[in-house]
Amino acid sequence: MISRRRFSKIAAGTGLALAAPALSTSSLAQAQPIKIGTSISLTGPLSGTKNALTGYQLWRDDVNAAGGLLGRPVELVTYDDQSSPAQIPAIYSKLVDVDRVDLLISPYGAVLSAPVMPFVKQRDLFLVGMFALAGNDTVRHDKYFHACPWGPNSQVNWARGFFDLARAAGCTKVAIMSADIEFAKISAAGGKAISEEYRMSVVYDQSYPPNQTDFSAILRNIRAAQPEAVFVCSYPPDSTALIRGLSEVGIGDSVKIFGGSMIGLQYASLLANIGPALNGIVNLHLYVPEPTMRNPAIDGFLARYEPLARAQQLDALGHYVPPFCYAAGQIIEAGVKGANTLNHAQISRYLHANPVQTIVGRATFNELGDWTEKRVLMVQFRGIRGRDVEQFRQPGRQVILDPPPLRTGELVAPFGAARSG
Amino acid sequence: MKRQDVAFAAGAIVVLLMGFGAVHAVANPYFFFAGYVIVQYVVLATAWNILGGYAGYINFGPAALYGAGVYTSALLLKAFGAPLVVNIVAAGLVGMVLGLMMGYLTLRVQGVYFAIATIALVIMLETVVHNIEYLGGARGLALIAPEPPAWAVGRTQFVFLVLLAIAVMSVALARWIERSWIGRGLRALRASEEAAECAGVATLRLKLAACAVSGALLAVAGAPYIYYASYIDPGSAFSLTLGLNTIAMPLIGGTRSWAGPVIGALLLASVQQAATVTISSELNVLMVGLALIVFIAAAPDGLIGLAERLRRKMHA
Amino acid sequence: MFLEILINAVATGLLLGSIYAALALGLAVTFGILHIPNIAHPVFVVLGAYLAVVANERGWDPILAALAGALPFYLLGALFYEFYARVFERRGEADTMQALTLFFGVSLVVETALVLKFGTNQQTVDVDYVGQSLRIGLLVMPYRLLVPALVAPVMILTLWAYLKFTYAGIAIRAAAHDVRALQVSGVDPHWIKRHAFGIASVTALVAGAILVIIGPVDPFSGRLQIGRAFAVVILAGMGAVPGTILAAFIIGVAESLVSAFLNPSWSPGVAFLILLATLALKPQGLFGASR
Amino acid sequence: MSEPVLAVRDLTKSFGALRALGPVSFALRGGERLGLIGPNGSGKTTLINCLSGTLRADDGRIWFAGRDVTNVLAFKRARMGLARSFQIPKPFVGMTVLENVLVPLDQIGDGSDHEARAMAILRSVRLDARAGDDAKRLSHLELRKLELARALVGAPKVLIADEAMAGLSEPEIDEILAILQRLSEAGVAVIMVEHIMHAVMRFSQRVICFETGQLIAEGTPQEVAEDPLVQKVYFGEPARH
Question: Is D touching A (3+ C-beta pairs, cut-off 8 A)?
């Protein structure tokens, strides 16, 4: 874990005008800090998300530089959950019962969040959700607010954009493949539901074990089924292997749109590694540097993130996780300032009633704490050449096709043409 | 001899009473969240040691039996809302059946082969769970357990107490086995199966018994987990780390007596609980790995063996 | 279409099988011949893969890099055996549990060392032939699998010839049967075992280079291979080095057919099912002498 | 002439294509002292393993104490009083000498006085002084004695002593011989499997000789020693010592 001192040094070393807590006004330093607790997957299979910490730290430094919350400095209390849900109950109990944190942020994703939900419901605590699809749908806690724009009823709806594009392109036959991993299975179930709703026939539907290295058998079976849309729910290791297989055995000429829910194609190292083979794939993202998405706040955030990422060997781009961690902080900030108290019920009441402006857009919460408006992007990779990471910071490489208000281009189809183009 | 038994029984009762007292006296629930993990390892290490330590059959897949217990309990809770006691018994039975299957394997294979076959069991069960939609597959299963009885203060305190009782019973059972003719027979077959057989020991029957008891206890250790975490997934139920710790604890404490796994579990699990919140988990794993190497190289009979050796040296 | 899927499934299975054989080969020496259950072998494979990654970043071909690294890896393996022997020397015959635990501990330490040095990110190599395929009629074979699959038989043949025709090779096989006889003939059994571990370690390095060509590798990739490698060795039969490739073909093709015609989700269980079936029905394996 | 306590008819055992034993037939009378000789690989150990039940014979029958035990498991034969020692001692390491003897007692005893009985047996082989020590710390002679002590627990009807004197010095051999002699006097039939010819010749009333799995000679020690077949088998390998 990066110690705070080292982090501050790195931050200071970059020459950015960051106010570390020690530099804040003396009255702020004397006040009892407000503690915000969370767990981060610093190790284990989800450690690709460990740059979350940087997102939280940047927010903490900003809020402290601006005088803290309620005149008190903000302090983060974080533990490594080792990507294991078995660790979560003890960690969150430690945060609440021993460290006496004032506010909680959930761990990453639905698997790690699942053990936290009954806990916060039982203790009636405020919680900011992080990336858990439909994280609050079973427990239905009224003090839960999602930092991620999956939107309402996200289990089914979040990938609707992909199927909207498929329908617009005239697809009627869809193939669905998914890794045996929680997020992928939920995505696949959602995809199936929408296919039915749109009267598309599911001509192939199968899951495969995580860490599958050879996709030729699966791709051939898909080709034999002649789908027009291929909805892929994969995880980082198999995303790479699958795209390699795509180049090797092909997928057939029938396919118009391919991708959807491939986790990993948001990470710099994977993108650079796969390179031109990405072209044509349509996939989910939450932030890409397209003109419709950019604003000074997020640009500034990413500009500060980059040198830190380089120094700490984190994901070079930081588009996927860190901005939403910063947004989680902003949601807390808005709630505490708006309610002018640390009382969880009052913060929740305020957030239910008022929208929050974050660096990733304006968030209005519904009764389950999901954003009322889904803002999952479907982007198409275009014009990727070579393996340079820098190109993914440029507009036009990850063209937004959906949702319509943010659109920066139209779907290039069929898939074969999009790949060569 | 008899005095020792009385002392042990008294100790067991004191531990249970202290647990019960702590639930009412200690307001901070974290104690029970962390305690649950530690006590769970006491059960796992003790259960593993009955087969691995006494009989010398290395079960490299304790996670298979633990996971079977976790999922049996969750299945019954989901399907019938069965009470915890029923789930524990059912998990024990499932563990016993799996243990007996493992035991029959010992007819055919010994030593390394047995160890490898048990690894296979973990992967097979995990693959099966992945493919059962009702159990949530790879997605995992979130279940909210029923409210605990009022005397237990809270849910975590309740499962902690249940697990503590299981731990005390497991240790008592292990101790009884160790000191009876069964334990002697198991140790004899550990030294030489052929010689034991020729000394009149019904080796197969003893091995089956050890596998069944060990399997049942390993599965029982998993039964309350769904009440603890409200969520299970194949990754945690069939966790490699859990299996590793279960094997490491008796080795560190000492495999020859019941106290070894208990000491090993209390020590390693407490250190790990503390380490989770202090040092990085890479160092945590590194620590376990190095501890294993050091103990194998320098103290093959664990801490208890080390203590005995020191005592002998002082007397000599 | 069915024919195409069948042909390609079998071909892919054979390619994968060949690669599994390469992964298991070192184990066939240490475990199959010397009866030392080196469950740390897969972690040496991963270590080899990382070496290939580092060399590849400097422009080397992974397989060439593996050949260049053969000597250091040989020494590493020999050193590893020396350590093992020292630990158990005083106690004579190694207790299975203690040996397994020691190797387990070593695996953890190596994995963690890799994590601390390289992080948990997936590592890949950049090779020209990845992404292209050899097409013969209906048959499509990716070079990503084909090239590694060709390395394995070469490696196995070389090792087989070495064991069969050289003095040291014959001594290795003899060491498995009768250490005393070996001593009488003036060969130091320790030297022979050290030598065998060195060779096994070199095969791990080559297998690692192959593994990282096929797909990304992380510090924990070895864990996935432990069961499969043992399945190959046990199915082949203890000490049956040439049999390794046939056993690996059987497992590879079985996995591939399950993937193609049943459900890919079940394929991880295939190797283990074969392993359990072998242990239960034919513990001596296909080509091994009866135990 | 008493009834045979152990009888074997047409016993065979093969490993793969290799016929290791038989067909072989012989009988052992109660209290008899039988020497079993033959070069390495002649099938002696295979025969003992078949008799004690750790190996299953392919064909043929075995009677023990008036019962057909061909399909009886090894541990039950041991409990019936068919005891054996091992060529390479197999002590229960990690257990004390006393516990080593308690293991067989556990199986047949009625639960009373086990320790006293175990100590008595240890005293009879003069191992009582080491009762509390771990078996792995014993000397070679002591290990041999422990093997015998363990075998004696069930008051056996037959004891198969598999090279119980291998690797021992002359005085040590005498000590083991004395123990076996006492047993024989107490009515235990003893099969002495041995390479040490002078001991076999001194001890046995009758000797049988094996070669390539076959019984090639049978008679008094004198007769067998003079048998031309036996001499041929042992040609170039004269009786040691």
Answer: no
The total of structural domains in chain D comes to: 1
Q: Do the domain assignments include residue A370?
A: no
Q: Are residues A237 and A141 in the same domain?
A: no
Chain D contact partners (≥3 CB pairs within 8 A): B, C
Q: Does D201 map to a domain?
A: yes
**Nearest chain B alpha carbon to D77:** B200
Residues A12 and A100 in one domain: yes
Domain containing residue D34: 6-88+156-235
Residue in B230, B239, B282 nearest the CB of A43 = B282
Closest to B185 (Cβ–Cβ): which among D86, D103, D154? D103
Task: Evaluate if residue A14 carries a pLDDT over 60.
Answer: no
Give the separation between CA A240 and CA A238, rounded to whole angstroms. Answer: 5
- Partners of residue B281 in chain A, C-beta under 8 Å: 42-44, 80, 82
Mean pLDDT of D13-30: 84
The residue of chain B with its CA nearest to that of A187 is B139
Cα nearest neighbour of D18 on chain C? C290
Task: Sort out which chain D residues have CB atoms less than 8 A from B183's CB and list them.
Answer: none
Average pLDDT over residues D78-101: 88
Give the tens place of pLDDT for each residue, B50-90. Answer: 998 898 888 888 999 999 999 999 999 999 888 899 999 99
Q: Does C264 touch chain B (CB under 8 A)?
A: no
Looking at residue D181, which CATH number applies to its domain?
3.40.50.300
Please count the structural domains in chain A: 2
Q: Band of the pLDDT at B163, cuts 50, 70, 90? A: very high
Contact C280 B108 (CB under 8 A): yes
- Using pLDDT thresholds of 50, 70 and 90, give the confidence band for residue C91: low
Give yes or no: residues A172 and A281 share one domain: yes
Q: Does C97 touch chain D (CB under 8 A)?
A: no
For A315-335, the pLDDT digits (tens) are 889 999 999 999 999 999 999
Nearest residue of chain C to residue D16 (CA atoms) = C290
pLDDT at A26 (0 to 100): 53
Can you give the pLDDT at residue A9? Answer: 43
For chain C, the structural domain boundaries read: 2-281
Same domain, A19 and A137: yes
Domains of chain B, with CATH numbers?
3-315 (1.10.3470)
D15 in contact with chain C, both atoms CB, cutoff 8 A: yes
Q: How confident is the prediction for chain C on average, in pLDDT?
A: 82
DSSP C179-223: HHHHHHTT--HHHHHHHHHHHHHHHHHHHHHHHHHHS-B-TTHHH
Range of the domain at A99: 4-154+293-363
- Summarised one tens digit per residue, pLDDT across range C9-19 is 888 889 889 98
How many Cβ pairs within 8 Å bridge chains A and B? 101
Query: Does A242 share its domain with A147?
Result: no
CATH class of C2-281: mainly alpha
CATH number at residue A249: 3.40.50.2300
* Predicted local confidence at residue B153, as pLDDT: 78
Q: pTM value?
A: 0.85
Please report, rounded to a whole number, the percentage of residues in chain A having pLDDT higher than 90: 51
Residue D142 has pLDDT above 60, yes or no: yes
